[in-house]
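> call design_seq(struct)
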């Protein structure tokens, strides 16, 4: 896929620059040609010599190097690549790109190019969350720049949160996807996520504490491997990922209809926290106090089990993955659920309040399949998502 593709790799000045050396090795191993461009600050973190030795190519650093201009002008340099990759994409580089500035070789190339750009942000969590960076991110997305990461996790500066550059393997996968490859290219995966809201009357509803964070991360990870993702989401608190087809629903009944409409799919990951019951006698008008001091008696009907229906339906995807949020005897309950619902895998997690998992950044899951129960260490939800996406890709390839 990457054989003979030409990647112009702009390495910004950040501690994550060392990871770009591994990225060069991965790209070279896949047969790609890598032309490295170093910003001035980058040379503080990795040496031009090591970059050039790994890439097996000349390293470009300054705009006004007349020898370079005679050999290959900066305009031409910006055009010969199949893809421009910026890794690490620092806050400063993002700001320059968003503002259209061209005051050094890297920013000039980025302004002069007509080639697609993939950026792997890397910066301190506060810098990433700053309104200016988020503005620049939105601007760059609007300009068609592709992004990979940043990930959540511990940072070189000792803080924790989003801002860690994506791992070389993830950037490599994103490059493959941008160039039309990716292990899940051509596959359609359906993901459900978030809670459902079941109305009591037009202004009140029954809900649960699901944030949609894990389902969102799974959809993004599948997209990053090249899958076409349909993302059916209830009213989640985290925003839906880019680059997936989003179908917004409120109730379990709406989610079932959206899921059935989205099939066929090669795989389905049902991470939604679907309400088990809906209010059978929901008010058409807002329910009023009647002065008697008695609360209205709500009656409930059972909601359809979407996972069980998909698992046993005519349009069953080749791989169906369910979730089991439990608060006690997690593995036994989840294993029984896998058989009862007819899905292939169950991702089980303990959502007792003490774990901090529901609504939190991290998850500790056990993957249950017919091969048994596999305990995964506690990790960030996006790391769980990437691992699950890789397992799904491997399972679909083995079929
Ligand atoms: O039965 P329980 O809600 O614990 O099962 C969890 C799994 O079943 C999740 O994958 C969830 O998305 C799915 N589910 C569903 N429809 C329901 C209830 C749960 O698809 N009505």
């Amino acid at each position: 896929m990457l054989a003979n593709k030409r990647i112009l790799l702009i390495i910004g000045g950040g501690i994550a620059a060392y990871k770009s050396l591994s990225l060069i090795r991965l790209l070279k191993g896949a047969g790609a040609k890598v032309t490295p461009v170093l910003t001035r600050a980058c040379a503080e973190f990795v040496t031009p010599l090591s970059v050039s030795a790994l890439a097996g190519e000349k390293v470009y650093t300054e705009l006004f190097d007349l020898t370079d201009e005679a050999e290959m002008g900066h305009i031409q340099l910006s055009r010969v690549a199949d893809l421009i990759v910026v890794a690490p994409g620092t806050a400063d580089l993002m700001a320059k790109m968003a503002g259209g500035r061209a005051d050094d070789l890297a920013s000039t190339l980025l302004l002069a190019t007509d080639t697609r750009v993939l950026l792997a942000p890397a910066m301190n969590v506060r810098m990433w969350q700053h309104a200016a960076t988020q503005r620049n991110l939105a601007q760059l997305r609007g300009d068609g720049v592709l992004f990979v990461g940043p990930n959540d996790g511990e940072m070189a500066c000792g803080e924790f949160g989003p801002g860690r550059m994506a791992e070389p393997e993830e950037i490599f996968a994103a490059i493959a996807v941008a160039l039309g490859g990716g292990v899940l290219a051509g596959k359609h995966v359906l993901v459900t996520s978030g809670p459902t809201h079941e109305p009591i009357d037009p202004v009140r509803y029954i809900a649960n504490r699901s944030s949609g964070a894990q389902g969102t991360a799974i959809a993004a990870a599948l997209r990053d491997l090249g899958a076409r993702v349909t993302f059916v989401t209830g009213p989640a608190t985290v925003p839906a990922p880019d680059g997936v087809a989003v179908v917004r629903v409120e109730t379990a009944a709406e989610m079932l209809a959206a899921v059935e409409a989205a099939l066929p799919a090669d795989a389905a990951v049902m991470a939604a926290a679907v309400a088990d019951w809906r209010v059978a006698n929901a008010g058409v008008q807002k329910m009023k106090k009647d002065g008697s001091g008695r609360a209205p008696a709500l009656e409930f009907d059972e909601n359809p089990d979407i996972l069980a229906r998909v698992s046993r339906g005519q349009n069953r995807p080749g791989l169906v993955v369910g979730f089991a949020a439990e608060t006690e005897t997690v593995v036994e309950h989840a294993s029984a659920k896998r058989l009862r619902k007819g899905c292939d895998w169950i991702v089980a997690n303990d959502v007792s309040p003490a774990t901090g998992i529901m609504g939190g950044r991290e998850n500790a899951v056990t993957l249950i399949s017919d091969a048994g129960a596999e305990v995964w260490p506690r990790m960030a939800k996006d790391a769980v998502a990437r691992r699950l996406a890789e397992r799904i890709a491997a399972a679909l390839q083995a079929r």
